[in-house]
Design goal:
43% of the residues lie in helices and 31% in strands. The chain is of the alpha+beta class. Helix 1 crosses helix 2.
């Protein structure tokens, strides 16, 4: 056989081996994530509740079904964030809404935070690229969003044009 043919076959064999290792690592990370996600979510909820109580800024938390927590604060207006763990998608879904008139909530938008594994650690990334390796960082991000939204005013264009 020609040397280039042998080199090509060897390169294909090495690529297949590398792909198998990558697939095995991905399966390990998926198993580890599924194992750690419920524990991480519980720790995050506990951190949010502890931070909200410590802030003392009239923040209410409400645990709901389907791993979800609702955060509310009545500043110059009522602001709400519904935080859901989308385990299969490896994301936190943040649904923002507000009420200025007491007639229900007006949606403000949705933001997704990526939840990934780095080694044996769950790490969260915002859409702008901020990285949080601890639940304290995620809790701080959520509560700052809530406080900012409850203290802000809706522009003159009306609530449907306001997207935070």
């Amino acid at each position: 056989m020609s040397s280039w043919v042998e080199e090509l076959k060897e390169s294909e064999r090495l690529a297949a081996k590398a792909n198998a290792v990558d697939a095995e690592l991905a399966m390990y990370e998926e198993r580890k994530y599924r194992e750690l996600a419920p524990e991480w979510w519980s720790a995050l909820v506990g951190q949010i509740q502890a931070d909200a109580a410590q802030l003392g800024k009239n923040i209410r938390t409400k645990i709901t079904t389907a791993p979800s927590i609702q955060l509310e604060r009545n500043g110059s207006r009522l602001a709400c964030i519904d935080v859901r763990l989308l385990t299969d998608a490896k994301k936190l879904r943040l649904s923002y809404s507000h009420s200025d008139n007491g007639f229900g909530l007006v949606p403000d938008g949705v933001e997704y935070l990526s939840v990934t594994m780095q080694g044996d650690l769950i790490v969260t990334y915002t859409q702008s690229g901020e990285c949080f390796s601890l639940t304290e960082g995620v809790s701080g991000y959520l509560l700052k969003q809530l406080i900012g939204r409850s203290d802000s005013q809706i522009p003159s264009g009306g609530p449907r044009q306001w997207m935070g």
